[in-house]
Amino acid sequence: MDSRLVAKITVPRVDDQTRTGTAYPVGVNLLLTARHVIEFTERDRNKPITVKWQDVSATIVIEPQNIALAFDGKEQLDVILIRCTIPQAIAVLVTSAIFESEKIHSREGWEALGFPKVNNFERKGATGTFGVDSKQPTIDLTLDDTINEEILKANKIENGWGGMSGAPVFSCTKPPKLQAIITDHNQWMQKQLIGVCVPYLMKLPEFRQALGLNDADEKHKKYLLDLPIRIKKQLQQIENSSLYQELANKFILDGIECSVENLWQAIEKIIISNDPISLLEKYSDSVAVVLKRDLTHINEAQTLFFLFLGFFSSPKDFVLAQHQVQKLPVSTRLAVEMNLAAWYGLAPDLVYESKEGIEPFQRTRGRYAIDGDTLLREMGPSATENAKELVNIVNTVISKVHYEVFGQNPVNLLDEKEKLGLDFLNETIKYDREVESPKLTRLEVSVQKSSEQSNPLLNDDVLEQLLNYLPDLPLVHYGSAIEKMETRLGVIVNKFLSIIKQYSQNT
């Protein structure tokens, strides 16, 4: 759990008092909390709601006319998603990778952070163990520590855990996952809180729709269905090669015909068995053996490897954010390429850079990725001027790619004084993704490296202006979390691409 993201939400009442609760951002424009924190009879609907993040000194005020619910669980579920603009200092930390889709086992540990009344509505943590999965929308949350009843009576506090409503409950696993939202304190059993299960919510189409996950689910499903077709087509192109024979010997059992269909079925079994890492390892070893004696199909070998990487992409990694910025909960540029390529229906296209100064885990990147981390200096006070400079950087990169392919610079690719030039550049970016050998040009920036520095790619005003110029330019924020298998996958991909690079120099 990222404690910086936990917010205190204060709601005015008609008796000039306030109700306090806890909220947690789950998107750059979505705030998750308990429904009863803002929906109650005594609420003063003529006054605004205040949300405050104390670690980053950020506050938003939601006026009554602007209170919009993206999801309303009604009284049965008692959770809501409020649609509002999250402060930039918080938005760069938000990730969709926190949601858990399966209920955790009973007696596993949990932790939460909120603003309980017993602590004068100041921030306080709580820990405990999960109760039994009773196949209900709610789950019992047994507390390690409870509140002394004598203290409650002396301070005339009826519900000491009031204010914790809406607090996120994370598992103590690695990485921690959001398992529940606190909605009630079980009064007759003093050592227990009640929470609505996030895995239950994640199975509701309307909740997923509010998070923007439905479209990602469908897109990714289509992408995975299309991958076998692409892979078999690639296998057919090398069917008479030494590489194909090596793969057949590696994957097909003795006595079975070495057809493309049988080879694919053998490969598919490994993928379905949830062991795709071993597929990459075996494939990489086979390619290394073949390239020692035959470089004929080195390009096809690389293409096939990239297609296999498509199975490591995840639809959960995508929540389309404001200004069309893709916020990916991954830590490496390799993972950015795999998931962004899947979003656009493409196979990953990677390059390996072993030069000094690049960390080993960042040596593999998308071929057409523009590193936004090099733009850490403050460009100036004008969002428009910053955006124009970024446009010129994109134009320069595309021009370099054009020169590498055609041996000459493009003619008048961009004249920033004319809208025609901007339109041409934007259409070039879009068109290049749709050709037979697609180029996934984009800007990408690590929020870990840049969040405390003046990177214009983290400035809302600059991003908005830039997208006015180039609406089809993908913008990626990554580095907010580490996805499963990223480390192991990075090692295997680096090894494979270093082998390809070594033998490519001999062709």
Quick rundown:
The chain is an alpha+beta fold and 507 residues long. The chain contains 16 helices and 19 strands. The protein has helices at 74-77, 88-91, 149-154, 198-201, 205-211, 213-237, 242-251, 260-272, 276-291, 298-309, 333-343, 383-406, 419-432, 447-450, 460-469, 486-504, and strands at residues 7-12, 18-27, 30-34, 49-53, 58-62, 68-72, 79-83, 109-114, 124-130, 138-143, 168-171, 178-185, 192-197, 325-328, 350-352, 364-366, 369-371, 442-446, 475-478.
Describe it.
This protein has 507 residues and is of the alpha+beta class. It has four domains: 3-91, Thrombin, subunit H (Beta Barrel); 109-198, Thrombin, subunit H (Beta Barrel), CATH 2.40.10.10; 212-312, no CATH class; 315-484, no CATH class. Helices cover 36% and strands 20% of the residues. It has 16 helices and 19 strands. It has helices at residues 74-77, 88-91, 149-154, 198-201, 205-211, 213-237, 242-251, 260-272, 276-291, 298-309, 333-343, 383-406, 419-432, 447-450, 460-469, 486-504; strands at residues 7-12, 18-27, 30-34, 49-53, 58-62, 68-72, 79-83, 109-114, 124-130, 138-143, 168-171, 178-185, 192-197, 325-328, 350-352, 364-366, 369-371, 442-446, 475-478. The strands form four sheets. Strands 5-4-1-2-3-7-6 form a seven-stranded antiparallel sheet. A hairpin with a 5-residue loop joins β1 and β2 (18-27). α9 runs antiparallel to α10 (298-309) and α9 runs parallel beside α16 (486-504). The two termini are 50 Å apart.
